[in-house]
Every structure is written in structure tokens, then in C-alpha cells.
């Protein structure tokens, strides 16, 4: 089984998000970058499936050379080899089109449910359409038997079980697995694993961020006496009329 | 040229988020001087009433395909092409987000998800999107002629002052789906968390899963959906689908009540767009109080019964 995992590199979840150059650029100063948490799940489940079916896992990342430390981390988790497409990710459509160029010949393609920076949640469906293969987004289970993949995925208000033959693309949701932690042997081995750098395909942008904005701060909390908590219900019912 | 709005059906009813989408689509259509068309994959007894929300035309699709993400996107794309769609609006739900990317490819369109504003069409097409899991917004220019927009539920107002429309039928087709749906489990009539207007959420302060009956009773009385913090979901006290925050889901209800949740930056990211936030925590230094509109410093096990009592009266 050949598995391809699409990986993005994002600010650590504790990062305070600020912007520079008149709110047109994300401020990377002092920010710790990590593998997108959902992509870590995709890598781990990809490895488990490949190991059980004498397969291999390739990770692909669209991003600059400074992200190679995160790619090496993926390799240290047990990934066989990596591809970095040397471009700044402009939007989900740009990333999906770049990945589609190298995504042929895999049985299973995995992404995270969304990246925790731009939250598009679109690369899975975009790849499915670009490669003309089925897509299953937000999956919490992936199994493989007798040439058929089966998935459980979150739907609005419930869940759904799907099945199909490969190739197929799916996006990883929490609960898929516990992320694998690299061991010392994996870290040593990762140093010499193949990491191929490819030039990007020329594309016309579908979108472009022109500026950012931070949420307006709250004006201050109104405290309610804990011995008179029913006052809260009174406010919600009669003043705000939200209940 | 037209604005096409895809409406979702749940439990034989149009979803509220879809009615919001029609009103949203109507406003764009008016600005651009084109018509707003509501598309439904099925006909319900009240399909004609979609006109009252602003649809100039209501079209029910006639097809013989099973609905999966790949072929329902094809059916919709076929309809969009026949109707000369310039803008396609879907809800930013799991359903909408599984369709939108495939639609964007089929229509060679620009795609924007998590959209929280009407487009600024002054010299271009700019929308405001939620990014960094609620920690920021990005103004994004969409450059292709056709645009697919997935709009965040509970963000846009509903106006049903229009008149009902005649329901037309459009024949569309798709290739046989390569993926099959083997089983669907849905809690009927339960509002998904991302679309809920009121959310009651709890954290480690509840001490254990056995105490969630208090949260559920409070939520029921308020007509709210229930949610939880990351540790609660990680410990398996509650299902992952209830986890709100940066690595869970981002929500935008009218009212968010957080009980026994300290308010870590990752959690606040996922809920900070809520219109009104109430924090209940026994620690007066809990960061949540800085992000809340109303707060009660007190023990959850003393406060919740008081709230339940007040709601029952």
C-alpha cells in the first residue's frame, strides 16, 4: 500500500497571533512552528496502515526550506520519504494543485481535517476533485481489508460509514489515533532519509489575503453575586433576550 | 448570471443555516443586479417558502444518483453550469465543506470557507474569513470569475419578508459514485454544535463524566447544545465531537456558557466569536473572566442548581 500524507506547518497552539507591516503579514517573531496537529494524526494512521500492509508512507509539504525541521520530524515518526514543493502556500487551492502534480500512484492520500492556521479544510476535497477520486472528509476511523478502504466520518449531527476502493483521499479528525512520538532510532534514521525538493508549478492565484484583523477585545466582565446566580437567568431572559 | 444557494435538508426540514445562506445570497444578488436561485436536492412540502427568504427562483433537482460527496458535487456543478452561476453559496457545515472544494474545481472557481462577511464588490471581490481558529480574521480577495463561498452558520440574519416562489425542476446528472455510504447515524432533531444558537460547555471543574447530567439538564432547559474543553474530551469524559477550541471546532453561538473551564488561549480561540459569553469558575483569576461578558465566581456544583431552579420558574 502506498500512502501519501499532505502536511502543513503551523504556529504552535499557544501562539498569540499578531501581524506586522500594517496588518498585512503574520508576525513570525518568536513563534514556534509545529506539524499541524491533524496532520500528525494523518501521518500516524498512514504509518499504521502501511505497516500492516507492507506499504510505505511519503509526506508532501508545500513550503519554504525553513520548514524542513518539521519534515524531518515526520520522517523520524517512521515516514519513508518526503517531498517538499518549494513555494509559499498561497491558499488551499494553490496547495492542492501543487500536490496533485505528484499525487498519482498512491492508494491512500491523507490530509488533516484543516490546518489550524488558515482553517480552510478544503485540500482533501480539492485533491479528490483534481484527481477525480472519492474524498471523505473529517474521518475518525480508517480501515483496510481485501482491497477496500472503510471510513467513519463526522457529519452534521452524527456520523457516517463509507467504503470504497483506492485511490481515495481522506482528512483526519481527532480520535483517528494517538499521534506517534518519534523514538531515538527514528530520529537518527530520519537524518538520512530522502527529502526531495521540487519546484512549484506556475499557477494563477485564486485568492490572496490583503490584510488581517484581530478580534475586538471584550469591554470587561460584569460579575454576578454567586449567592444570587438566578440573576444571570434574569439578564439572559429579559435584558439580552437570548434564552 | 446568478447567485446559487445550496440548501441543506435535515429531518425533512430546511436547515436554519441554509435559510441564512439564502438571505445572504439574496443580498449579493441585489448588489450585483442578478437573480438568487435556491437549489434543493429534494422537494419538501414547504419548498416554495424558500422564496420568502429571498430566492427569486427555487429549483428542485431531478436526478437518479445517490448522494455522496463526489457525485452530489457533480450534480450541483451540473446545475450551476446550466444556471450560469457566478456565485455559489453553501453553509460552512460538514456537508457544505465536503461539497465546496469539489464544486470549486468543477466550476474553475475561487473558493473561500469560514466566510463571515458579505463580499465587498468595490473594484473586486473581497470577503472576511475566520482564520487561526478564531484568533484572527483575514480579508481575502477572490480573483476567479466564479466564486464558491462557504458561510459560517449563525452569522447572518434571516429575513423572510419575501413572497413564496414557484418550484421548478431541473434535470441534472452525475457519474456513478465511486464511494458508498454504508450507514448513517444521526441524532434526529439535535442541532449540531456548529449551528447551535446557545451552547453550554463544561471543563475539568465538573470533576468527572458522572456529573454531566447537571450540564445536560441545564442545556435542555436553555435549549442549548452541549460542548466541552480539550482535557475533558482527551480524558474520554465526553465525545471528541463536543470539543471546542483550537484543535476542536470553532463555534459562534449567540450565547456561550462556560462552566469550570479556565480559559486557555486554545479554548478561547474556538469560542471568542460568540456574541455573549458567560464564565462560571471558582477561581477568580481564571483567564476566562477576561474574555467573558458575564461572570460568576463560584463552585459549579452550587451555581448550576441555582440556574436550573431559576430556569424552571
What level of helicity do the residues of chain B show?
25-40%
Based on secondary structure, the structural category of chain A is: alpha/beta
From the 3D coordinates, which CATH architecture of the largest domain in chain B would you assign?
3-Layer(aba) Sandwich
Which stretches of chain A of 5+ consecutive residues score pLDDT under 50?
none
Q: Could you tell me which chain pair has the largest interface and how many residues each side has?
A: A-B, 79 and 98 residues
Number of helices of chain B: 8
Under CATH, the homologous superfamily of chain A reads: HUPs
Spatial extent as radius of gyration of chain B: 21 Å
Overall mean pLDDT of chain A stands at 97
CATH class of chain A equals Alpha Beta
Give the percentage of residues in beta strands of chain A: 25-35%
Shape of chain A: globular
Q: Which strand order does the major sheet of chain A show?
A: 11-10-9-12-8-1-6-7-13
User: If you consult CATH, what is the topology of the largest domain in chain B?
Assistant: Rossmann fold
H-E order of chain B: EEEHEEHEHEEEEEEEHEHEHEHEH
CATH architecture of chain A: 3-Layer(aba) Sandwich
The tally of structural domains of chain B comes to 2
Taken together, the total number of domains of chain A comes to 1
Amino acid at each position: 500500500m502506498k500512502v501519501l500524507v499532505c502536511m502543513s506547518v503551523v504556529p504552535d497552539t499557544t501562539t498569540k497571533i499578531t501581524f506586522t507591516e500594517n496588518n498585512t503579514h503574520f508576525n513570525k517573531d518568536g513563534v514556534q512552528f509545529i506539524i499541524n496537529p491533524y496532520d500528525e494524526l494523518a501521518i500516524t494512521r498512514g504509518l499504521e496502515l502501511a505497516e500492516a500492509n507492507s506499504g510505505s508512507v511519503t509526506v508532501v509539504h508545500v513550503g519554504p526550506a525553513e520548514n524542513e525541521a518539521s519534515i524531518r520530524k515526520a520522517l523520524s515518526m517512521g515516514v519513508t520519504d518526503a517531498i517538499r514543493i518549494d513555494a509559499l502556500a498561497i491558499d488551499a487551492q494553490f496547495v492542492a494543485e501543487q500536490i496533485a502534480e505528484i499525487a498519482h500512484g498512491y492508494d491512500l492520500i491523507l490530509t488533516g481535517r484543516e490546518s489550524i492556521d488558515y482553517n480552510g479544510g478544503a485540500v482533501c476535497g480539492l485533491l479528490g476533485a483534481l484527481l477525480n477520486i472519492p474524498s471523505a472528509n473529517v474521518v475518525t476511523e480508517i480501515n483496510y481489508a481485501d482491497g477496500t478502504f472503510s471510513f467513519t466520518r463526522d457529519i452534521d449531527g452524527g456520523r457516517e460509514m463509507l467504503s470504497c476502493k483506492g485511490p481515495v483521499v481522506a482528512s483526519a479528525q481527532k480520535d483517528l489515533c494517538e499521534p506517534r512520538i518519534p523514538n531515538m532510532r527514528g530520529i537518527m534514521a530520519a537524518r538520512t532519509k530522502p527529502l526531495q525538493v521540487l519546484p512549484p508549478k506556475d499557477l494563477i492565484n485564486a485568492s490572496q489575503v490583503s490584510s488581517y484583523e484581530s478580534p475586538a477585545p471584550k469591554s470587561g466582565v460584569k460579575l454576578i453575586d454567586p449567592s444570587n446566580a438566578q440573576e444571570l437567568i434574569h439578564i439572559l431572559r429579559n435584558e439580552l433576550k437570548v434564552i | 448570471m446568478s447567485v446559487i444557494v445550496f440548501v441543506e435538508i435535515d429531518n425533512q426540514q430546511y436547515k436554519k443555516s441554509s435559510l441564512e445562506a439564502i438571505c445572504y445570497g439574496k443580498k449579493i444578488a441585489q448588489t450585483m443586479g442578478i437573480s438568487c436561485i435556491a437549489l434543493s436536492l429534494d422537494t419538501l412540502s414547504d419548498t416554495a417558502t424558500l422564496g420568502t427568504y429571498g430566492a427569486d427562483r427555487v429549483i428542485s433537482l431531478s436526478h437518479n444518483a445517490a448522494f455522496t460527496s463526489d457525485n452530489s458535487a457533480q450534480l450541483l456543478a451540473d446545475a450551476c453550469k446550466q444556471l450560469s452561476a457566478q456565485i455559489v453559496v453553501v453553509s460552512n457545515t460538514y456537508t457544505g465543506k465536503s461539497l465546496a472544494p469539489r464544486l470549486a474545481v468543477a466550476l474553475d472557481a475561487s473558493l473561500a470557507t469560514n466566510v463571515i462577511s458579505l463580499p465587498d464588490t468595490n473594484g473586486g471581490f473581497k470577503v472576511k474569513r475566520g482564520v487561526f481558529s478564531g484568533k484572527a480574521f483575514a480579508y481575502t480577495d477572490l480573483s476567479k470569475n466564479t466564486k464558491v463561498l462557504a458561510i459560517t452558520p449563525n452569522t447572518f440574519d434571516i429575513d423572510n419578508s419575501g413572497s413564496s416562489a414557484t418550484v421548478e425542476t431541473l434535470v441534472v446528472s452525475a457519474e456513478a459514485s465511486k464511494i458508498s455510504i454504508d450507514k448513517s447515524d444521526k441524532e434526529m432533531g439535535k442541532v449540531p454544535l456548529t449551528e447551535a444558537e446557545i451552547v453550554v460547555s463544561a471543563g475539568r471543574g465538573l470533576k468527572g463524566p458522572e456529573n454531566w447530567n447537571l450540564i445536560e439538564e441545564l442545556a435542555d432547559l436553555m435549549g442549548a447544545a452541549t460542548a466541552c474543553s480539550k482535557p475533558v474530551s482527551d480524558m474520554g469524559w465526553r465525545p471528541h465531537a463536543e470539543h471546542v477550541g483550537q484543535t476542536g471546532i470553532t463555534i459562534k453561538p449567540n450565547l456561550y456558557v462556560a462552566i469550570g473551564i479556565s480559559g486557555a488561549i486554545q479554548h478561547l480561540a474556538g469560542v471568542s466569536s460568540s456574541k455573549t459569553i458567560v464564565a462560571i469558575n471558582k477561581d477568580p483569576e481564571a483567564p476566562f473572566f477576561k474574555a467573558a461578558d458575564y461572570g460568576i465566581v463560584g463552585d459549579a456544583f452550587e451555581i448550576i442548581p441555582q440556574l436550573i431552579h431559576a430556569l424552571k420558574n
